[in-house]
Structures are given as C-alpha cells and as structure tokens.
From TrEMBL:
This is DUF1292 domain-containing protein. It holds the Pfam family DUF1292. It comes from Paenibacillus vini.
Length: 100
C-alpha cells in the first residue's frame, strides 16, 4: 500500500448526511456506543470517518473507521483490519489535524 498525502484528500459528509452528527455503533457483544463524527474523507479510492466517543474526553484519541457502501446504497462503518492501511490513514489524519 502506498502512503497517502494530504493533497489527495477529498472531504466528504456521507456519514453525517446519512446518520447525523452522532452515530450509534454496536459491538460484537451488542453493546451500543455513541460517537460524534469529527471528519470524513476519501483518499486513494477509499472512504474513512473519524469518530470520537461521546463518553470520552477531548484528550482521547479518535477512532478511524472505513466507510463501505452496501449494494442497497446504505453505509456501513467497519474497523480497519489491515495494519498498513490503518497506519497510513492514521498518519494522514494526524497530518491533516496537526500540520507542521
């Protein structure tokens, strides 16, 4: 996988448009958590959402999810399982959030 750069980013709002500024996620055990949508962007043909737990504080690291579109057009947020992809996306988010 190639490294992403800030000039490749296209800002989006698909998750916010579909669900609003707060999304409800359910884990494998059925526990529901609420997250504020901080940023959404497309890069290198993939879409990502940066979410922050409503129950956390501002110092907590946000979570980054991949946005997938189902055949029916609905959106799904999934964890990023590929270590290289996660590293590239998290570094890109840091670069976008904390420019040098």
């Amino acid at each position: 996988m190639t490294d992403y750069s800030a000039d490749q980013v296209i800002w989006t709002s698909r998750v916010t448009d579909a669900f609003g500024p707060v999304v409800e996620l359910q884990d494998d055990q059925g526990k529901v958590s609420y997250y504020n949508v901080e940023k959404e962007f497309d890069v290198a043909g993939a879409s990502y959402a940066v979410l922050r737990s409503e129950n956390g504080n501002e110092d907590d690291e946000p979570e980054i999810f991949k946005i997938l579109t189902a055949a029916d057009g609905s959106l799904e947020l999934v964890t990023i399982d590929d270590d290289d992809e996660w590293e590239n996306v998290s570094e890109l988010y840091d670069e976008l959030t904390f420019p040098e």
